[in-house]
Each structure stands twice: as C-alpha cells, then as structure tokens.
Amino acid sequence: MSRPEHQAPPEVFYNEDEARKYTQNSRMIDIQVKMSERAIELLAFPDDEPRLLLDLGCGSGLSGSVLEDQGHVWVGIDISTAMLDVAQEREVEGDLLLGDLGHGLPFRAGAFDGAVSISALQWLCNADRTSYNPTKRLYKFFSSLYSCLSRSARAVFQFYPENSDQMELVTSQAMKAGFYGGIVVDFPNSTKAKKFFLVLMTGGAAPLPKALGDASETEGVSYTNKREQLKKMRGKPLKKSRDWILEKKERRRKQGKPTRQDTKYTGRKRSGRF
Q1: How far apart are CA 92 and CA 36, in angstroms?
Q2: pTM greater than 0.90
C-alpha cells in the first residue's frame, strides 16, 4: 500500500470524503489524540499556565481539541480546505488559516510559545509540482517558524519519515534555520507503536526528552552536536588537504620540531601505481 503523500498532493488527497474519516473513524481519532498528547508532553512546559501555540497541519482540528482540553490557546494552519471546513463544523476554539507550510508562516516575530504538528511534516519532502524543491520548501518553513516562536519555545513534530535520508533532510534544514534538537523515537523495537518525534528548541542546546519504552528500547538521535561541529569547522581547511598539511607543518616549525620543506608535491595524492 503506497504512502498517502505518494498518491496525491495534500490539498487533493484530503478531499471531503477523507476529511470526514477523521471525525467518524474512532481508531483514527484515538491515534491522533494520543500522538497530540505525547507532542504536548514533549513541549515540556515547566508549569500549567496556558500558552499560545501553533498547530501546523491542523487538519480537522483533532489535535487542536487536545490543546484546548489542556487549557491552551491555538492557531491552526492547513492546506486542505475540506479539512478546515470540518474543523469549522466541529466549532473548534482555535483560529484557522488556509495556507501551504512550504510557503512559510505569515506570523509576527516571537508571537507563539510553542508549536505542535501531527502527521504533516513528511508531506513537505515531496515535489508535488515541477516548481517545488523540498530542500528549499523545508528551509522556508523552518526559518519562518523559528522567527515566529519565542526564544524559549519548542516545536514538536510527529511524522512518518520514509527513510534515513528523509530524516537527514528534515533535520539538516531545521538546524540550518537556527533550531537545536533531534529525533525522539518512542518504542523503537515495536512495529505498530513506533513513533518518530522531531523535537526542536530555539533557546540553545538542551538534552532531548527520553523516549517511551523499556530502558533497552529508548532511542534518541541528536543533531545538535553535528551542528556544533560544523560551526567549529567553518573556515578551517579540510583534514588531509594541502592547506591542512601546510598549516600543520607551520605549527611544527613554530614549536621547533624537525619538519620537511614544502614542495609542489606537498599534499598531492599518490597515483596508486606504487
């Protein structure tokens, strides 16, 4: 069975019939509610005060209803008109906005205390139109999200990555936009219960939340250290390159250590004939 994002663009796939399923199928509702509750838990708010939150890819407002139940105020954005129509019929309390996440978010800087997203992020990895570039669309989305969050906020995305390359694409663009964080995998050894959460932070590097599961099952992948390493490497010559070798030889000379003279062959790769 092919993945939904491979069948049609989201605004086409989530038509009126598909939108109705999300308010009539008790199993879908139960899964959405549980994932929304887990996403809010991963936001790790230090107290029970109400927050202003973004629901990204809010759909028919199921995750927004969970935010309401926990006392938060929310604004939802989704690309599917049919989904938003169902949300309005359900008379959700959040404000609703029709929009494509890949075009960026139209909110003022620092407006939100956090953001959640359930089963939406993987759709941005598809090139549904010839003009779509997933890398650029992800960066546009993450950079605008970073801008509209406060500097102590978190964003939590439950999503279904297709493979490790897709996870790397998503996380690299999030880090490029300014976020810290990584992937939390709940129940990594379970086929049905396994869930991926991208946990992003605006206020600097911090430990990732613990994943659910037995101690032997917990798994988390931090991308923050990689970002710090790239920062430190910026402007430095690549290891084993000619510039790196010349720099190392110069340090040895300054330390008074015996060092061979520089020649046109310094740092040149051997042909492999010998």
Answers
A1: 15
A2: no
